[in-house]
Amino acid sequence: MLVNEWLFWQMGGLGPMTGQYGHFNVYAPEKIPYAIERYTKEAQRLLGVLDHRLEGRAFIAGDEYTIADMASYPWISPYDRAPIDLAPFPEVRRWRDAIAARPATQRAYAKADEVRPPGEHVMSEEEKRILFGQGARSR
Predict the structure, then answer these.
(1) Do residues 89 and 14 make contact, with C-beta atoms less than 8 angstroms apart?
(2) Is there a contact between 71 and 10 (Cβ–Cβ < 8 Å)?
(3) Given this model, what pLDDT does residue 27 score?
(4) Phi-psi region of 56 (alpha: psi -120 to 50; beta: other; left: phi over 0)
(5) pTM of the model
């Protein structure tokens, strides 16, 4: 039950809000200060919730690594061009580093690098149309 609660927390909060943070800080064609500030503060608020939750436990739901950790981990400062400041969140940093050190995590990210090599990815016009809700072009 606790695992599901934190999985739903990620799905309803951390993922969507850090996704919006990334959208307005990295991908939006124009910088909108209100949106940048709003989603930066919301990402920081949620990281504060997670930091508090991780106090005294190895993982989100306790001492075992669960789907709640797997779902939350990729949303912790995922944007190279606009990293979220994790300095105020020592428990999140500890948890993130522990997951990053897991062999399975390293294999998964290495596999991702095979699909899309590391470094700056420039979006195609087709990707931009999809991202900004203009739909894909018919083929």
Answers:
(1) no
(2) yes
(3) 87
(4) left
(5) 0.85
Give all strands (DSSP E) within the chain, no chain letters: none
CB atoms within 10 A of CB 85: 11
Summarize pLDDT for 54-110 with one digit per residue, the tens. 999 999 999 999 999 999 999 997 887 888 999 999 999 999 999 999 999 999 988
What Rg, from alpha-carbon coordinates, does the chain have?
16
Position 22: which residue type?
A: G
pLDDT in tens, 26-55: 888 899 999 999 999 999 999 999 999 999
Strand partners, 62: 59
Contact (CB, 8 A) for 61 and 68: yes
User: What is the rounded CA–CA span in Å between residue 58 and residue 64?
Assistant: 7
**Amino acid identity, position 119:** G
Q: What is the C-alpha to C-alpha distance for residues 134 and 136, in angstroms, rounded to an integer?
A: 7
Residues 65, 59: contact at Cβ < 8 Å? Answer: yes
- What SS3 state is found at 59? strand
HSE (CB half, 13 Å, CA atoms) of 57? 14
